[in-house]
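Please, structure for the following, as C-alpha cells.
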Amino acid sequence: MKKEECFYLGKIVSKFSFKGEVLIKLDTDEPESYVKMESVFINYNDNLVPFFIEKCSLHKSDLLRVKFEDVDTEEDADDLMKAELYLPLSLLPKLEGDQFYFHEVIGFTIIDNSFGEVGIIKSINDSTAQALFEIDREGTEVLIPMDDEFIDKIDRDSKEIYVNTPEGLIDLYL
C-alpha cells in the first residue's frame, strides 16, 4: 500500500498501559467512527506496515485507546511512539454536494465570479485558524480562505470550484 492511496488518520501520542496499549490522536471530527477498525497502516521506518487491532475504545472522547496484535510490552509500544496511522482512501465515505475532503480537490481549478479563473489548487493549508486554498496562478501563490460563504459550487466532473471572494482579495497577490 502506497501513502498516495491512503488518508492520514492520526498519530500515536502516548503509551497507555504496561501491556502495550497506546493512545492515538485522530485527525477527525468523528472519532467514534473508527472504534470498530480491524487494522490500520502505520508509517514505520518510511513503510506503511499493516497492524491488526485486538481491541479499541474511545478514551476521553477524542483519543482512541488501541491494543495492537503482537504489541505486548511497553518496549513494543515505545517503538511505535509518534508514528502516523493511515487507512485506504476507499474507506472514506463518499461526500455529496459542496462537501469535500482536502486531498480530493488538489488539482482543481478555482474560478471566481468576478475575477475569472484564478488558478490550480496545489495544496490546502489547515495549520492556520482558517483553512486556506493554496492556489498556483502562473507561479504566483494566491491564498483564499475555505469559507462556506465564499464557495458557491463544486463541480467534481470538470474539477472546478466556483468561489465568490470579497472584492480585491485576489488582487492583493498579483
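Residues 3-91 form a domain with the Elongation Factor Tu (Ef-tu); domain 3 fold (CATH 2.40.30.60). The chain has a mean pLDDT of 91.
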